[in-house]
Design goal:
It is a multi-pass membrane protein. GO terms for molecular function: electron transfer activity; heme binding; metal ion binding; oxidoreductase activity, acting on diphenols and related substances as donors, oxygen as acceptor. It is found in: Cell membrane. The chain has helices at 7-14, 17-20, 30-71, 74-108, 110-143, 150-156, 158-179, 196-200, 205-233, 239-273, 275-282, 313-319, 340-371, 378-385, 387-404, 417-420, 427-455, and strands at 185-187, 190-192, 293-295, 298-299, 304-305, 308-310, 409-411, 415-416. With 487 residues, it is mostly helical. Strand 4 (298-299) and strand 5 form a beta hairpin. Helix 1 (7-14) packs parallel to helix 4 (74-108), helix 9 (205-233) packs antiparallel against helix 15 (387-404) and helix 10 packs across helix 13. The protein has 2 domains: 1-180 and 438-466, no CATH class; 206-273 and 275-405, no CATH class. The chain is built from 17 helices and 8 strands. The longest helix is centred in the N-terminal third of the chain and has 42 residues, at 30-71. Helices cover 67% and strands 4% of the residues.
Length: 487
């Protein structure tokens, strides 16, 4: 699924000359700037979950369909059919929310796109191409059931996965550029000597794109698994539901430890390139060695209150030595500091959820290694049932850290948010309209997905057979215990 929809690159760049004429009216009022930030944040927060599923669901489809071809097991094929229908719905909804975002970029932030559009236009244009490629092959994949050979049909899903990952990569490179603006010179308020490839492959691109794409696979895996965890808790323990849980949960579990390593890499990057953001994340108000690692707490009078501190923990993480000097918020004026409590608590939430998912993944891995089965404790399924919401919360918190931690800058060190926002009054009205649109989208999406889920339980659904509600049959000889009866 498109990171911001293919229209982002078109509308977001070509439709910006109109609001730029309003810039002469002066800066936006604090209320209107807050409304613009709330609208953009809400829209991105709503869309990012769909974008994550758009990256990860094709991987689940490809793996499960490959297993169906390899084993001849119809249960894998049932999963693929049902997941593919959900992908079609989510892609359509994501295209709508992505289109809304494309207009918001142009209408709310003319100071950004009007000045720097030619610098970051390349990733948006490439993202548009990836979006259209993804849309075409999703249509082929859904339409071609029974019309192509099984192996050829499997291959039609490959461009969907590649385009989804590419779309996310291109959009995140644009955001990474906002954190590390390179690839141009600014002379007399005009952009010159643009190097779009250097801008796209800026120093922040590797940590941000890795962190986001891995997060997308984790959100997908744990979200889909959580649906089947609820079904298992309700007694639907047949092989279909156990497969529906095990496959996506394994996807999330594989990436959980990798994400911890990538997160450490991203934090070390911030220590070098965006020390103010790192200082806000950890509540470091003064530059010092032996900087502690603060867990929880709130910022009061330039110090962290109620936090649990690990002595020298931050210095060790940043530079592998307790004597490593960590630059604090005292290196910049007060006006250039982000809101510390917001950034710090969002960062703590992201890290806490990351380790929760890591421990849950380890529980799953140990049980599978020892018994070739799911963990038998009902507490495992209860925790797995909330893992999808937890993973989504971690992604939302991570983006709060990225965006709020960059404030008061829209383009770090180059363009302040107050200078990027549209100065036209009355932005609150637009925010209310957008909230209503997303409310309708949310209700409609949940309604359609629930109807599809209920229809899939009937014998008539897609001509598929259903399992009897009694205890599942014993697995066939050689079947893995995790996909048979738990006993």
């Amino acid at each position: 699924m498109s990171g911001l929809s293919g229209l982002f690159g078109l509308t977001g760049l070509t439709g910006l000359a109109v609001p730029m004429s309003a810039a002469a009216a002066g800066p936006a009022s604090p209320a209107d700037m807050f409304a613009a930030r709330m609208q953009m944040g809400f829209s991105l927060g709503w869309h990012i979950v769909l974008a994550c599923l758009g990256v990860g669901m094709p991987a689940l489809l490809l793996f499960t369909e490959w297993r169906a071809l390899r084993t001849g097991d119809d249960e894998y094929l049932r999963l693929v059919h049902r997941w593919a229908k959900a992908v079609g719905v989510l892609f359509a909804v994501g295209a709508v929310s992505g289109t809304i975002l494309s207009f918001e970029m142009g209408l709310l932030w003319p100071g950004l796109m009007g000045v720097y559009g030619e610098v970051i236009g390349l990733p948006f244009a490439l993202e548009g191409n990836a979006f259209f490629l993804e849309a075409i092959f999703i249509g082929v994949y859904l339409y071609a059931w029974g019309r192509l050979s099984p192996r050829l049909h499997l291959l039609t899903g490959v461009p969907v996965l590649v385009a989804g990952v590419a779309s996310a990569f291109f959009v995140v490179t644009a955001n990474a550029w906002m954190n590390q603006p390179v690839g141009f010179t600014l002379e007399g308020g005009r952009i010159r000597d643009v190097d779009p490839w250097r801008a796209m492959m800026n120093p922040a691109t590797p940590p941000q794109t890795l962190h986001m794409i891995i997060a997308a696979f984790m959100v997908t895996g744990f979200t889909v698994a959580s649906v089947y965890a609820v079904a298992l808790l309700r007694g639907r323990r047949d092989r279909y539901h156990r497969l529906g849980f095990a496959i996506p949960f394994a996807l999330g579990a594989v990436f959980a430890p990798i994400q911890i390593v990538v997160g450490d890499y991203a934090a070390r990057f911030l220590a070098e390139y965006q020390p103010v953001k790192l200082a806000a994340m950890e509540g470091v108000f003064r530059t010092r060695s032996h900087a502690p690692l603060s867990l929880g707490g709130v910022a009061v009078n330039e110090e962290m209150r109620y936090a649990v501190e690990i002595p020298s923990g931050l210095s060790l993480l940043v530079g592998n030595s307790p004597s490593t000097v960590v630059r604090g918020l005292d290196t910049v004026p007060v006006a250039d500091r982000p809101p510390v409590t917001t950034v710090h608590l969002a960062f703590d939430t992201m890290v806490a959820v990351g380790f929760f998912l890591l421990l849950l993944s380890a529980w799953f891995a140990v049980a599978w290694w020892r018994h070739r089965d799911l963990p038998r404790s009902p507490w495992f399924l209860r925790l797995a049932a909330i893992s999808g919401v937890a993973a989504a919360a971690a992604v939302e918190s991570g983006w709060i850290v990225t965006e709020v931690g960059r404030q008061p800058w829209t383009v770090y060190g180059r363009l302040r948010t107050v200078d990027a926002v549209n100065p036209v009054p009355g932005l609150w009205a637009g925010f209310v309209v957008v909230l209503l649109v997303y409310a309708v989208l949310t209700v409609a999406t949940v309604y359609v997905l629930r109807r599809m889920a209920r229809a899939s339980r009937t014998p008539e659904a897609a001509g598929e057979e259903t399992h009897a509600p009694q205890e599942p049959e014993e697995p066939a000889q050689g079947a893995t215990p995790a996909t048979g009866d738990r006993g």
